[in-house]
Write a structure and sequence with these properties.
With 86 residues, this protein is an alpha+beta fold. Helices cover 37% and strands 21% of the residues. It has a 3-stranded antiparallel beta sheet with strand order 1-2-3.
Length: 86
């Protein structure tokens, strides 16, 4: 998936609540065990590093991302929060 399409998908998921709009309170990484990335919906290979984190919102399971998807998610959620404040 190209970068702009990925950014658009992540932006939509933040807007419709499928990805959190708040920051992740605790983040850790580990080798993947074949998890699915919550941002791009593809499976992380066992050679990839999994970024996982929890938000402060109650009832949400930890989010799982590719490293690049995590970075894009963080950029997009910050941009949306800045836009809401303007």
């Amino acid at each position: 998936m190209d970068q702009e399409a990925l950014r658009f998908l992540i932006r939509l998921k933040i807007q419709n609540g499928r990805l959190p709009h708040d920051r992740i309170a605790r983040v850790w990484s580990s080798p993947s065990d074949g998890e699915t990335c919550d941002a791009c919906d593809t499976i992380l290979s066992k050679e990839q590093l999994l970024m996982e984190g929890t938000t402060r919102a109650s009832g949400r399971r930890p989010c799982q991302f590719h490293i690049a998807c995590f970075q894009i998610w963080d950029d997009e959620r910050r941009a949306q929060r800045r836009a809401q404040k303007s």
